[in-house]
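Sequence in, structure out. Go.
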Amino acid sequence: MNEHVDGPIGIVAALVRSTFLVNAVYEASAREYGITQQQGQLLCVLMPRPYGMSELGALLGLAKSSLTGLVDRSERNGLVERRPDPHDSRAVRVGLTRRGAKLAGEFYTETCRRVEELVSGFPEEERDALAALLGRVVADNKVPTVFMESVRPH
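Output:
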């Protein structure tokens, strides 16, 4: 049954459908910057600091082979670089290049603006309530920090 239903929806449908909505916004933003959604996620994760490959795999929820391919493609595009790990000579850390940092900042800013636009018609107290509730869901489920907090314009 593929009927459009107007009116209130339950928590499961609301969360699942909002995930699709945010993913679509993220994908459109990435496409406009000439990167994949996964590369956009990688750039945003690396904005605060470089990470080791196992840390990145855990943060992004990717298997080692998938992560290696993602890092390889991003490295070929000049967005990231592998650097020796100062604490483990057998390991590398992945960090943003100068070009990658510039693109990450632009992509991040634009993606935040677009996601913020999704609730632009909400009064501030509803936006704050939604953020608090979703924040609890994220915290209660120990979701890793894969996207920094944006600063909301007032």
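Check: The first helix runs from residue 11 to 32. The chain has a mean pLDDT of 89.
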